[in-house]
Specification:
By secondary structure, the chain is an alpha/beta fold. The chain is globular. The mean pLDDT is 95. InterPro entries: HAD-like_sf (IPR036412), HAD-SF_hydro_IIIA (IPR006549), HAD_sf (IPR023214), Heptose_bisP_phosphatase (IPR004446), Histidinol-phos (IPR006543), PNK3P (IPR013954). It is an enzyme of class 3 (hydrolase). One of its GO terms (cellular component) is cytoplasm.
Length: 170
């Protein structure tokens, strides 16, 4: 199974400074993100969300707030005809030393454990931060970084300006 591992905040929906998440009640989708997800599915990929949510354990939002935003996120995607295979999130603070916070590989390992048919050689990671690209490097998979700069001059690492720039590469 080919999987497109997507970051959520800043890639599919808007991201905010940590302290502003406290007052966010509804996800706002980034331009072209829904159409891009549809095209990725049409190209034969399943979509798994891999998202750091350290703002939970660092006290900016509650676990309930996270689930409320994420349920709205998933409901809107379903309404748009987009089926997610799964969502994996890390609630741990940046200094907790967990193995799941990106760029650590814990969330992708969880996905592989739950879905052993995932073929990493045919899968990729896309996100808007260095930790997304570094996670892909740590897993040895193709990566697409949205606006993360040109620090990554390695094979299988592609720099994008926006999410819609992904489609020609897959």
């Amino acid at each position: 199974m080919r999987v497109a591992f997507f970051d959520r905040d800043g890639t599919i929906i808007e991201d905010y400074p940590d302290h502003e998440w406290t007052g966010i009640n509804h996800p706002e989708f980034i331009d072209d993100s829904i159409n891009t997800l549809k095209e990725v599915i049409e190209k034969g990929y399943k979509i798994i969300i891999i998202t750091n949510q350290y703002i939970i354990n660092e006290g900016y939002i509650t676990i309930g707030q996270y689930h409320d935003i994420n349920n709205q996120f998933k409901s809107e995607l379903t309404r748009q005809g987009i089926e997610l295979l799964d969502v994996f999130y890390c609630p741990h603070g940046k200094d907790e030393g967990c193995t799941c916070i990106k760029p650590n590989i814990g969330m992708i390992k969880q996905a592989i454990h739950k879905y052993p048919e995932i073929n990493l050689e045919e899968s990729f990671m896309i996100g808007d931060s260095a930790v997304d690209v570094e996670l892909a490097i740590n897993m040895g998979i193709k990566s697409f970084g949205i606006g993360v700069g040109s620090n990554y001059k390695k094979e299988n690492i592609y720099q994008l300006n926006t999410i819609k720039d992904l489609i020609p590469y897959i």
